[in-house]
Amino acid sequence: MAQDKQPIFILPENVQRMMGKDAQRNNILAARIVAETVKTTLGPKGMDKMLVDSMNDITVTNDGVTILNEIEIEHPAAKMIVEIAKTQEDEVGDGTTTAVIFAGKLLENAEKLLDEKIHPTVIARGYRLASEEAQKISKELAIRITPEQKDLLKQIVITAMTGKGAEAAKEKLSEIIVNAVRQVLKSGPEGIKVDRASIKLEKKKGEGIEDTQLISGIVLNKERVNSDMPEQVINAKIALLDTALELKNPETDTKIQITSPEQIQAFIDQEDKALRDMVDKIKKAGATVVLCQKGIDDVAQYYFAKEKIFAVRRVNKSDMELLVKATGGKIVSNLNELKPEELGYASKVEEKTESEDEGMIYVTGCKNPKALTILIRGGTEHVIDELERAIKDGIGDVSIALEKGFVVAGGGAFEMELAKRLKKFSHSIKGREQLAINLFAESLEVIPRTLAENSGLDPIDILTELKAHHDKDEKTIGLDLSTSSLSTSKGGEICNTLERGIIEPLEIKVQAIKSASEVTMMILRIDDVIASGKGPQGPSQGMPPGMSPY
After folding, report:
1. Three-state DSSP class for 54?
2. pLDDT reading at 399 higher than 80
3. 37, 59, 87, 96: which is the annotated catalytic residue?
4. Is residue 475 scored above 70 in pLDDT?
5. 445-459 mean pLDDT
6. How many CB atoms lie within 10 A of CB 187?
7. Do the beta carbons of residue 481 and residue 512 sit within 8 Å?
8. Which end of the chain has less Cβ packing within 10 Å, N or C?
9. Facing residues of 408 across strands?
10. Helices 96-115 and 76-92 sit at what angle, rounded to 10 degrees?
11. 87, 97, 162, 476: which one is catalytic?
C-alpha cells in the first residue's frame, strides 16, 4: 500500500511570495507609478507638488528628488526607482526627474516585449547594448565649453532654473551662480574641479527674490556676544578659534576649602586674571575680530568689549572651515600658538540687524576668497526653500559642465537625435535584441513628449515635427517653451535650441541614461519576490501594502 504523501513546507506561513509574470508585472507597475508621480513636474511649464508630512509641515516643489524623498514609499521596486533620483542628485546635482521618467518608460516598453513572449534577459541584453551605444553617440553630439564662456555658462544656469519659480530674477541669479562657481573652481593637471561645498547658501526671509545677492565672504546667522562691542570693524584681522574662552570645570568632583573672606576674593581674582590673560593673548596677536567655535565667558566678553574687539561665539564647524577658505586664516586650538600670521583678513566685518530681534554677521571684502555666500531672499519660507533648490540645481549644472567640459542642446533636441541614431544602430543587430534597442530609442522620446504635454501642446504633432527636422540632420532642433507664442504653425517653440540658449550639461544626460537603464535591467531580471512577514510592526497582514504599488 502506497504511503500518504506529506506536504513539505519550506517557507514560514507569514512569508508572502510572488512569482513569474505576476512579480514582473507588479514591479513594473510600481516603478511606472513612481515615474507618473513626478512626470508633470518636468520642464519650464511643469507643475508643482504640495507635500504635507506627519507634522503638517508643507513643502511646495517641482524638484524630482525632493518629492521622492518626502513621500513614503513601501514597494521595493518603487524604492529602486527612488534610488535612481538619489544617485543622479549625488553624482551630477540635477536631472532627477528626467532619469526617473526615462526608467518608467523603459519598463513600460519592456512590458510590450514580455507580452510577445520575449525573455527578460534578451530585453536586458538589448537595453545594455543600447545604453553602451548611447554613451558613444552622446560624445559625438557634445560641444566643448570652458570657464571663459561666461554667457554660455549663464544659459546653462537659466535652463536649469527655468520652471522653478526663479524666472523673475533669472538673469541676476545666473550671474550670481556663474560668478560664484568661477571663483571657487580649481584648474590642475587632472582638469577643472569645482568645490561646491565652498558656496554657502544662507536663507533670510524678507524682501524679494531679486534681492538675492552674492557676498565675497561668509555670512553667519549669528550676533556679536556683547552690544558694547563695535558694530563694524574695518580692515579686520580675524582670529579663528576652536578653543573655549572660558574656564574649564574640573573633570571630577572637587572641593575647595576656604577659611577666610580674603581667600574667596583671591579665588575670584584668579579666575578674572585667567580670562583677562586670554583676551590679552588675542589682543597681542593683533586680532580685532574673534570668531570662536565654542563658548565665551561673560567676563571675557566684557574685556573684549572694553578692547573694542568684535567677538562671536558658537560658530558652526562647517562655517569655520569656510571662513578659513574665505579669509586665509588658520583655526587655532591653543591661544599660546596664536600668532599674527595665523589671522585671517577681511576689509569689513559687521553685524546687520535683519529684523527686530535678530542680526547677521557679514565677513566681506576678503582677498581672493575661496569660499562665498549666496544670501537667498524671498517673501515666505516656502518660496525661499524652492529658490534654494533651484540655485543648487544651477550650481550643480554649471559645475558638472565645467568639470566634464561638454554640453548638449536642450529642449528634447538631444533625446530626439539620440533616438534617431539608436534606431539606425538597431538595424545592425541581429536577433530579438534589435526590438529592445528600438524600444530603448523610443523611450528617449518620452522627454520631448512630456515637455509638450506639460505645456498643453499636442505631443503627437510636436514629435512628428521634431522627427521631420532631425531626419533632415538638423541635430539641435528642440522645444523652446519659454516663448510667449506656443503656436506650432508659427514655429514659436520648435527651434534650434542651441542657438536659443537652451543648453544642458552632457554628464546629466549620460548619468540619467546609465542609471535608468541599469535599474531597469535589474528589475526585469526579478521573477520571484519573497517578502518576510516579520518586521518592527509584527507579522505581516499579507502582501499589501508592502508589495502593492497602490
Report:
1. coil
2. yes
3. 96
4. yes
5. 91
6. 10
7. no
8. N
9. 504
10. 140
11. 97
Contacts of 243 (CB under 8 A, 6+ apart): 292, 294, 332, 333, 334, 335
Residue corresponding to grid cell 526617473: 100
| Placement of cell 535652463 in the chain | 159
Q: For residue 149, give the DSSP letter.
A: -
- Tell me, yes or no, if 480 is annotated catalytic: no
Between helix 506-524 and helix 120-141 the angle, nearest 10°, is: 180
DSSP string, 311-361: EE----HHHHHHHHHHH---EES-GGG--GGG-EEEEEEEEEE-SSS-EEE
The 3-state secondary structure of 274-310, one letter per residue: HHHHHHHHHHHCCCCEEEECCCECHHHHHHHHHCCCE
Three-class SS state of 204: strand
Is 96 tagged catalytic?
Answer: yes
Those residues whose C-beta lies under 8 Å from the C-beta of residue 407, and which sit 6 or more positions away, are: 142, 143, 145, 152, 156, 401, 503, 504, 505, 506
Chain centroid, CA 191 distance in Å? 23
Parallel, antiparallel or unpaired: strands 310-312 and 331-332: unpaired
Question: C-alpha dihedral over 491, 497, 500, 502, to 10 degrees?
Answer: 130
Determine which one of 41, 59, 61, 63 is catalytic: 63
The cell for 85 is 533620483
Each domain of the chain, given as residue ranges in start order, spans 22-144+409-528, 149-216+372-404, 218-368
Residue 159 is a catalytic residue = no
Residue among 48, 393, 397, 480 flagged as catalytic: 393
Q: Give residue for cell 572637587.
A: 254
CATH number for the domain formed by residue range(s) 218-368: 3.50.7.10
Task: Tell me the percentage of the chain whose pLDDT exceeds 70.
Answer: 86
Domain covering 22-144+409-528, topology: GROEL; domain 1 (1.10.560)
pLDDT, one tens digit per residue, over 269-319 is: 777 888 888 889 999 999 999 999 999 988 889 999 999 999 999 999 999
Instruction: Tell me the one-letter amino acid at 347.
Output: S
